[in-house]
Amino acid sequence: MEKFEKLAGVAAPMPLVNIDTDMIIPKVFLKTIKRSGLGVNLFDEMRYDREGNEKPDFVLNKPQYRDAKVLVAGDNFGCGSSREHAPWAIADFGIKCVISTSFADIFYNNCFKNGILPLVLPEDEVDTLMKDAEKGANSIIEVDLENQTIVSSDGEIFRFDVDPFKKHCLLNGLDDIGLTMEKENHITAYEAKASQQFPWA
Amino acid sequence: MSTPKTLYDKIWDAHIVHSDPDGTCLLYIDRHLVHEVTSPQAFEGLRLSGRKVRAPGKTIAVPDHNVPTTENRDDGIDNEESRIQVEALDKNAKDFGVNYYPVSDIRQGIVHIVGPEQGWTLPGMTVVCGDSHTATHGAFGALAHGIGTSEVEHVLATQTLIQKKSKNMKVEVTGKLRPGVTAKDITLAVIGETGTAGGTGYVIEYCGQAIRELSMEGRMTVCNMAIEGGARAGLIAPDEKTYEYCKGRPHSPKGISWEMALAYWNTLFSDENAAFDKIVTIKGEDIAPLVTWGTSPEDVLPITAAVPDPESFSGGKVEAVRRSLEYMGLQAGQKLSEIEIDTVFIGSCTNGRIEDLRAASEILKGKKIKKGMRAMVVPGSGLVRMQAEEEGIAEIFREAGFEWRLAGCSMCLAMNPDQLEEGERCASTSNRNFEGRQGYRGRTHLVSPAMAAAAAITGKLTDVREIQ
What is the CATH architecture of A6-173? Predict the structure, then answer.
């Protein structure tokens, strides 16, 4: 997995609440058997018309947000389906940090497996960053995972919380399976015990 | 005396393989369900790293999302990408030696219907699948939730998941349901109450008389949509109905093993005075037949109500509702019972079980669907379909004018050819009314199977209590 240490880039504002994973990546793009190449279809139905032409009003089609690296979004971002295609598409587009007041559980976990930092901030701070994002291309947000800070384009500093284990994995680009394999003796011991206790399982 | 535990606490504790001081746990997974959409990249990952499936006997695969539901499907899948995805699962199941129900197998169906039906899902287990509606299996008092593809690979390789414990929420539905009100209305009512993010960070235990009185099928419907309320999982403590359902299924324990299991399952309940972080209480008597009007499952109202005014909401929801109503082609103040529909879909992991088909057929008996209506019933599995045919239910659907399809996810998410066209409006027994969910710019109203049947007859959203 790609490491996440620091990030500085344009933030795109998407104040809509309950942006679901069907919006992030519609089901027609779930038929792939690969992880790559989904960025072009990120927010497909919001971003393009039926003929595949860009809708000029959609935020990521506006010149100032085409290279956005951060997304500031409304409440409950990523609700719905478990599809990891959603963070795959976000990362493939180039967005590596999503900021909201809340995320759906599965989406939130999926982000960390793909080098994306999902950040939960209080409503007033998200509002401030949303306004900041609305300024466009001259408004660069800086995210520092090690120090758990965000610096807005006006120099305002926000602190954020992140699970220490997830932080460690992101900072070092660690693969979960490799880490778990180091505990294989515990798994084997559990299986031996469970085969006595719960033989039907 | 030991600290009282919730049902969730008990299942969690019984599956800890390893715990770190910061609360990060390695949790053992008893059953891993797999379908074709979220697994190809995971199996590919195993191949690339030279890993095997650690417990193929605990891994159950079935294609469901992409499969056609028409009679000629044994001839193959026309859509190339869908075909490749299903063929990839055929190959992965064979190469890695996991339990498999291919399209041609009578037992094939929606993974969340096949698991319980075959006795793979049992009380007290941990069950995961790369699919958010894994919550369904919580009906058995199993800890069941959706995972992403990276986690699918992790479970395939290690039979464990790295997890932090969620908080405990109790949702109590007291009293009795009124006639015409079903498990679907309960689960929609809960989401209407808590909102789609109300369950975030929690595992919900559903309890109360109205829940106890539900059949296993009904309980599965309730737990299925726990994810729509944002919860990691929904649970219902097992009881005699659960045991009755499990007994004699192909993969449920037999003989002495059954007795042992039963003794353990009888310990699976929340202790008196167990601590819940949040409690929601709903009176069963207060629940009416419900329909959704917007593009989020929380946009739900009794069929007797009217489309709400966006200005009656607050915060970001005002804009979201404005957008929803525009998408849905509805006006504030319009009566829900006057909304005309052109499509009815009965099926999905929410409402594709035998009881759901029975409920819909009760309404349809001796009646015809409205002229021009496209109505489709897609049983949740080949076995549900067969049972419905034996019970004469299939005949009722056919005579009423419904298409009687083969098993699969079908129009719940429209990855196969069963899709809404732009602007079409569907009364659907599925679980999500998101934009584009059932087809590009299609419009979805979530309802119970009985309400879907009523709508098919009248051609508009209809109060099932008014159908004679």
Answer: Alpha-Beta Barrel (3.20)
